[in-house]
Amino acid sequence: MVLAKIPGGPAGVEGISLFIVPKYRVNQDASLGERNSVNLAGLNHKMGHRGTTNTLLNFGEAGECHGYLIGEPNQGLRYMFHMMNEARIGVGTVAVMSALAAYLYSLDYARTRPQGRHPQDKDPNSSQVPIIEHADVRRLLMAQKAAVEGALALVMYCS
Fold first, then answer.
1. DSSP 32-99
2. Per-residue pLDDT tens digits for 31-73
3. Which of 25, 56, 67, 108 is the most buried (most CB within 10 A)?
């Protein structure tokens, strides 16, 4: 999808429309037609979510490029912000799921990593206990779990 201005439209952001510009044109019978002139000009390197590719595109430099208007003319910014609200929830969900994975890995590690002994057990020959049995590790895991569950509740509320 591309934001662009239609000649003769209102000045400023009021005149922005939303178009879909496919890689291939679609024929009347819904079959794929010839390639549209959309070419990759480069990759944008942005901070943040690294799993999403952000690119710079050139239109019409190697032939004709066809774009198709979505919705009403001059309403593109409104449509794009509506879609961005949905995308923001998706980004938040990905962040929460990454935090959940980190918590689950931490929990598994704490359950399986032996180190130290109980404070009342002073015998150096006794077996070590998993670190989940240490009070501070349990406190840290609980804080991590609370943050994840709170963030998940926020995502669900926003959805």
1. EEEEPSEEEEEE---SS-TTS--EEEEESTTS----EEESSTT-HHHHHHHHHHHHHHHHHHHHHHHH
2. 999 999 999 898 887 776 666 777 889 999 988 999 999 999 9
3. 67
User: Within 13 A of 9's CA, how many CA atoms are on the CB side?
Assistant: 16
CB 18 within 8 A of CB 80: yes
Domain 2-72: give its CATH architecture: Beta Barrel (2.40)
Segments of 106-150 assigned E as strands: none
HSE value, Cβ hemisphere, 13 Å, CA-based, for 152: 11
Closest CA to 6 of 68, 83, 61: 68
Q: Domain spans of the chain? A: 2-72, 81-158
- For 87-127, the pLDDT digits (tens) are 889 989 999 999 999 999 999 999 999 998 888 888 888 89
